[in-house]
TrEMBL record:
InterPro entries: DUF112_TM. It comes from the Bacteria. This is Tripartite tricarboxylate transporter TctA. Keywords: Membrane, Transmembrane, Transmembrane helix. It comes from Skermanella aerolata.
Amino acid sequence: METLVALSSGFAVAMTPYNLMWSALGVTIGTAIGVLPGIGPALTLALLLPVTYGLEPVSAFIMFAGIYYGAMYGGSTTAILLNTPGESGSIVTAIDGHAMARQGRGAQALATAAIGSFIAGTIATLALTFVAPLMVKLALLFGPAEYFALMVLALTTVTAVLGASLSRGLASLFFGLALGLVGIDLQTGQARLTFGILELLDGIDTVIVAVGLFAIGETLYNAARYRFEKEEIYALKGSKWMGKEDWKRSWKPWLRGTALGFPIGALPAGGSEIPTFLSYLVEKRLSKHPEEFGKGAIEAVAGPEAANNASAAGTLAPLLSLGLPTSATAAIMLAAFQQYGLQPGPLLFDNNPDLVWGMIASLYIGNALLLLLNLPLVGLWVKLLVIPRPWLYAGILVFATLGAYTLNNNVVDLIILWIIGLIGFGMRVLDVPVAPCVVGLILGPLAEQQFRRALAISQGDPTVFFTHPLSLGLLITAALLVLVPVVLKARQNRREQDAQAQI
């Protein structure tokens, strides 16, 4: 009952004309960004961080949430019509969605993606409404030792999961931790890693790092990677609505995709890629027409798209209640919280209920707005694909540079921005994940404070981290996340060597 009262107050915040405008703007920008290949929600949020610096936190996060949901919706458009996923969660959708487009059924593929996204997003937001407060109650049991262990788990999960190589993930993490050390030590007052530059005494702004890695680095990588010839777009033919058979074959995959997407998105090792692939495999196993998969099965579009959008709500649950980012987009939203001097977790629900519940309520509103935007206006979104990519990437670079400069009107910020941007470009080329760097920059100083606080309370006894059950459990989980993949890989290599020796 308490949750419903809080949600109703959130709707009162989200339904004001001013916040409705920001929600509508967010879902519109998010859809447009999702449609454009190579530009995901993380890059967009990073790009808008400097621009929203003067905006009220409630309005800013309502817009950010709209962008996140909108990008999840829009990514299916290019996946279906161009075979180019606009967002990583739409990779699976491209397999059968593009096959349907080649058969002249692109409109039906887009319709099942949009309706499935709406249903999944609404159900998953409902789950978020009730799950997040329960996670907050769990977090209230945490002391300094438990918070330090939780941050170690957050750093470990993002490092181990986001990227193909653990060593590369750790390199990105340690780079972020080093950036977080720059500035004045809050306890001793000593300057650290400032190299005599006065502007670095306050530390390196999180927004500068996020914009540099995601906007500058990602844009340079996309500009260097993609050729700029005009791509073939499959036109929408015939009826733009789903037939009776399409509805019959879609509604169960929508529900199953939702059931997979939300819980996996909420896990530290979640994200949108895992549930979409699982949804595809489940639908193929349960389908009466498995031979159609890969050739234009509508279930293979309905299920993964539902899982994709449900995972977005799942990602927000640990972010809001525990401050635990489980994806690159969540890492940028964590940076946005820090920009406003806020730390996600139990205190956020107590001190800023208007922000939390207004943001959650806006997800319901944004879902309805996205359905209205995507079904009748899909032809308009397709026209965005004709924008020349050199113009698009040049605009992003200029916008990112101007936005970063307006933060402090400081040339040093611009120098740092482009140095980190070039490093981010190199990281993308070498397949080093950038999200661990941002998470390390944000959570590193907080973990250091909790570590020192726990030692101060225990009078310097380091066993405090292992004598508290919650802290010990979190640290063991973090260790397993690092060690288990290493052991499994070593075992696989040994098997391959044995197999070669037998040959």
